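Below: protein 1.
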Amino acid sequence: MIIINLDVMMAKRKMSLNELSERVGITLANLSILKNNKAKAIRFSTLDAICRALDCHVEDILEYVPGIDPEEDDHE
């Protein structure tokens, strides 16, 4: 399963969801979906913009955790 550590990077950069939304140019709702690990996909252009805004690398935001099936996780 892919885990999105957006909240961790935002905290490290002391950046609010509102500020990141403005810098990246995507809605608060879409950022919230990413932040809460509810996203099914992310565009490379969005990932690029987030990395630029947070001055980080992709691996700072995305983490692969083996052994967790996202399909099973949705049914809890």
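Below: protein 2.
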Amino acid sequence: MADVLAVAESKRGILAGVSREVVTVARTLADRLGGSVAVAAAGASGGALGAYGADRVIDFESSRPGSGRVDAWAAVLADHIRSRRYRAVVFAATATGRDLAPRVAAKLRTALLTDVTGVEVDDGDIVATRPVFAGKALARVRAERVPALLSVRPNVFSPQESARDAVVETLAGEADGVVAGYRVKGFEASEGVAIDVSEAAIIVSGGRGMKGPENWGLLEDLRDALGETAALGASRAVVDAGWRPHAEQVGQTGKTVTPKLYLAIAISGAIQHLAGMRTSGVIVAVNRDADAPIFGVADYGVVGDAFEVVPRLAEAIRDLRDG
């Protein structure tokens, strides 16, 4: 009973990039436990995940798991986990994962270690590292129940290729006994959003110091200069003022992000905002106030006017990329 299950995610029939990270974590745990890796996929074929260490891919044929009814998918998944007796199950700590994983944990009556940023096996037990107190400290938590359920923070674990000839198994998952009390009628994609802020490798985030929505073109230009892996973010004050959509909000009441590069432009750095981005790989801050709290977590800081610094920064990045 050392096998590990990775729960893949998909959007509109395409595997989400975070699925590669989830399989990478599952592969790491399985290697240390002496087991194999299975992938549970619904809504998209998971066969390509064999390249990242999956020994077996289980495609759930039923339309219910991929239909948006997360309670039905949780029931199907919990039944499958009971039948296979996995040692651990790995989810992504995305909006979907945060909805799904607790439901599965409740059905299995086991604990869920959330927002994990590190994993190890100590004396046969799975030990997870996760931020606590708004990211000011890290806790090491030992999973004492089987299966151990983990949700891993996106963009923390780099996908590692570990090619396997994955065996694809098809199951007709059903959850007819689940009464949700609601019906999903459809989905609407956010207009003009190329990449979700929680999945972006680079985030250009603006604060109230941008003075108004009419100035966001400066940040969009910087985002475009950084390439297709960059997304726009915003502070709570900006979203509350109606300058930017809530989907871009970073912080305790928005989205927790862990990009490789986070640019905080004209953001003072309230504790609620820091809670959502302080675990980013590299933080660059631009602010006129040298005493702004954001500089306390920044790896690099520029004390200056964003309206002067940002255009120069975008130009320098374009020159570097073109050269």
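DSSP finds seven helices and 17 strands in the chain.
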